[in-house]
Design a protein that fits this description.
mainly alpha, 68% helix
Amino acid sequence: MWKQPYFVIGFSIIAFFLAGSFVYEWIWGNVPRQIYYIMEGGRAVEGAPISPNWQFPLGSDEFGYDLVGKLMLGAKYTILAALAVGALRMLIAVPLGYILGTYLDKHRKWISSLADSMHYIPLTLFAAFVLTPVLWMPQEGFTNTIWERIGIQVVIMALLTVPIVAILIANEAALLRDKEFILAAKTLGAGRLRIIRKHLYPQMREKIAVLYGQQVMETFIVFAHLGLLKLFLGGTKVSYDPMFGDPPMSISYEWAGLFGSTFRYLQSAPWLPLAPVLFIGLTIFAVSMMMEGYLRSKNPKVKKLRKAKVEEPAVEWNREQLRNNMVRIKEQEMIKAEK
């Protein structure tokens, strides 16, 4: 897997964001650098939000905070939360899917029909309805920590689509149960648990890995949708001042929150909402690259094609050698016939 350039490139992008986030906070703290205006010739030529320049490659926000610093500080919250949602979702859905596809196969059809109806429910709206009491700051302030709110959000978002993922696993397990090697194992006395461990899981390992990557990418998209609804990862800071209240803000600088809180600047300062979208898109691209590299490393057809390409010069050389030998034998036979 580590020999696949696709996997290495995707892993390097995600590792860069995560490592850079922790290193940035360790060196410069958890508050980005701030500048209110740019001076040239003794006078202010530009005020916040400052457009991208050499000093601020991605510009600054409306309060003068460096956008690169905010994105690097929020990288660890965004990426780790998305990975945790996908992992917890698969950790719950895979065993349930195997149980439903083997032990409860008689009830699989009607449960599958019930779970399929969830495809028509917008996941973002359902998540917003459930997460609003958790993430929207009340007037008296939050009573729990940011990590507790992130943990609650991860659990809720993981549970929302567990039925759909479990049905996918159950249907795939039901298809494999009719294969000859599964029937042979049953004939030899293998129990259902052994069939799951020794036959179903090894056959579905690559599909489960791909499904995990898809869940992570879906989580990034739902985060972005929730950001547009002002529900930010870790909580939404709300000002209840009736006269000079600030708009809802992200507490953790996570990317979806930066996107949602600056979407109103799409026309006047487009770098504010587009920079978080660029980082989210780049991370989704990295996850997709890792999935492709993993599949290439586990696909035997790719290995056979590579071996065929490596052995091709040797085959051509053997053919040429055989042709030369045949010509030499014919020449020797002609010489003998003349004698």
